[in-house]
């Protein structure tokens, strides 16, 4: 029994020391909520919208985890705004977009509307996308965030940004 008490006390001391070290020396990681930022004060300019889109793309949206040059898990999006027109005309396209802005937005909320050859779910002949709907589930982007990512991808492709900043819409009314 004496050995048991010694081991129990030793275990509690070790746990206490590690807890103390964690509290004192491990810095807290602040969380960012772009939805809250955009809801409090929506982006009022194209530059603000693009900047928010870049933050969401690399952060909360987790886009860069798969859409990157080293991953190979998803196609690169550098020229998505340019390729949108040809994808809309592709016979495999099952969406309803009429232009690049609508196509990019739709690709985030209905990823299986068009699946780039070689990137579909195995066994589906590239008709189902492994990408989740970013507006729900674990990612849960809001409308402003999805529009911001759309604007960011247009800017990144070097085409004119056609997304109107939500703050600019409200100001013009």
Low-confidence stretches: 33-38
Biggest sheet descriptor: none
Count of alpha/pi helices: 7
Q: How many runs of DSSP E, i.e. beta strands?
A: 0
Gross morphology is: elongated
Task: Briefly note the CATH topology name.
Answer: Cytochrome Bc1 Complex, Chain D, domain 2
Under the CATH scheme, which architecture would be assigned? Orthogonal Bundle
In angstroms, what separates the terminal alpha carbons?
A: 78 Å
Strand content: under 5%
The residue-averaged pLDDT reads 88
CATH class: Mainly Alpha
**Could you tell me the radius of gyration in angstroms?**
23 Å
User: Could you spell the SSE succession in H and E letters?
Assistant: HHHHHHH
Descriptive notes:
The structure is a single chain. The protein has 173 residues and is mainly alpha-helical. The chain has one domain (32-172): Cytochrome c-like domain (Cytochrome Bc1 Complex, Chain D, domain 2, Orthogonal Bundle). Helix content is 50%, strand content 0%. The protein has helices at residues 2-25, 34-40, 46-58, 80-89, 100-109, 143-157, 166-172. The longest helix has 24 residues, at 2-25. The protein is elongated. The relative contact order is 0.17.
Brief characterization of the structure:
The protein is 50% helix and 0% strand.
Mind sketching the topology for me?
Elements: H1 2-25, H2 34-40, H3 46-58, H4 80-89, H5 100-109, H6 143-157, H7 166-172
Helix pairs in contact: 3-6, 4-5, 5-6
């Amino acid at each position: 029994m004496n050995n048991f008490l010694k081991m129990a006390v030793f275990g509690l001391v070790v746990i206490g020391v590690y807890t103390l070290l964690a509290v004192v020396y491990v810095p807290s990681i602040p969380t960012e909520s772009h939805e809250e930022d955009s809801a409090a004060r929506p982006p009022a300019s194209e530059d603000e919208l693009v900047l928010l889109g870049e933050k969401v793309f690399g952060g909360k949206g987790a886009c860069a985890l798969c859409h990157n040059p080293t991953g190979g898990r998803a196609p690169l999006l550098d020229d998505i705004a340019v390729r949108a027109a040809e994808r809309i005309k592709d016979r495999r396209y099952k969406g309803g977009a009429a232009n690049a802005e609508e196509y990019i937005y739709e690709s985030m909320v209905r990823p299986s509307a068009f699946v780039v050859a070689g990137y579909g779910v195995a066994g589906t002949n590239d008709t189902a996308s492994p990408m989740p709907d970013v507006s729900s589930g674990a990612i849960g982007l809001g409308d402003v965030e999805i529009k911001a990512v759309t604007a960011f991808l247009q800017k990144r492709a070097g085409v004119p940004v056609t997304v109107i900043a939500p703050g600019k819409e409200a100001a013009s009314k």
